[in-house]
Design the sequence.
């Protein structure tokens, strides 16, 4: 069976068209790839990323969604580092005890995020429950914003509606829990 010249022209025309368009397509692909790399770099370094949600998966595997309690106006969001997990838990447990419980407009919740699977495993092995929820798998933007803050030794104070209020330094040597709580309660 021989191919008629009319049948072979379509593949030839497509090959020529692709050869002509290839340099333009390659340029567009490279430009898009560079733009994506720039955006990813900005997101990774951004100290001002907000929190679209504090949701995620807790240690016990349940979906975590912050309580929509009308009394809770702000949430303190901190990152637990595997390398300093015991100190982080002790310090944040002390902070949780000191957080204002009233008046209603001053109530602050506390949520911690694990920095990786080793943190999650270590916390699951602990026999004692923590006085605050721990998110092991959070949403990407919130997790990255918290990682950015944690690199600076800060946690984030987030107001209702997920607008970041401010960062609060807690990893500096000599920071006392009562002074820290007074500062964030302002």
Sequence:
């Amino acid at each position: 069976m021989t191919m008629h010249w009319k049948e072979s022209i379509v593949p030839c025309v497509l090959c020529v068209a692709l050869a002509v368009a290839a340099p333009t397509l390659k340029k567009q692909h490279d430009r898009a790839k560079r733009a994506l790399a720039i955006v990813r770099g900005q997101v990774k370094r951004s100290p001002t990323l907000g929190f679209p949600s504090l949701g995620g998966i807790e240690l016990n595997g349940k979906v975590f969604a912050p309580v929509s309690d009308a009394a809770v106006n702000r949430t303190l969001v901190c990152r637990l580092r595997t390398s300093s997990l015991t100190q982080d838990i002790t310090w944040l447990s002390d902070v949780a005890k000191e957080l204002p419980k009233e008046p209603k407009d001053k109530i602050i919740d506390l949520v911690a995020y694990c920095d990786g699977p080793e943190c999650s495993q270590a916390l699951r092995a602990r026999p004692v429950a923590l006085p605050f929820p721990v998110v092991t798998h959070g949403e990407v933007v919130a997790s990255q914003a918290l990682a950015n803050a944690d690199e600076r030794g800060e946690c984030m104070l987030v107001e209702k509606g997920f607008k970041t209020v401010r960062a609060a330094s807690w990893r500096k040597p000599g920071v006392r829990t009562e002074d820290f709580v007074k500062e964030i309660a302002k």
About this structure: The helical segments are 5-45, 85-98, 117-124, 140-151, 177-185. The mean pLDDT is 81. The chain is about 45% helix and 20% strand.
